[in-house]
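Gamma-glutamylcyclotransferase: structure, please.
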Amino acid sequence: MTGVLLFAYGTLQDPAIQIAHFGRPLTGDPDRLDGFTRSTLTDGDAVYPVLIPGGPAPTPVEGVVFEITPADLAAADAYEGDLYRRIRVRLASEIEAWVYVAA
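Here you go.
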């Protein structure tokens, strides 16, 4: 993989969300992120998955790593908004990728 790598563990895995925000469905490879606690956050009536670095109960988080463009990453930043922040992580596969965690 040589482009921008993004690890998705929640709504960004949904092809409908991908088409709406990137203009196409994405293809990726399964991977895992260790050392984070999976939780949820609420925005109005909506509930979203979120990761907390370390946190009270770190467990492996299964997801998909996508190779995207810098423009796609900017679109993902806009989609995630102020509820999340983007950080670099090393996945179980030893790949470094971006992931969105609790802001």
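Notes: The mean pLDDT is 93.
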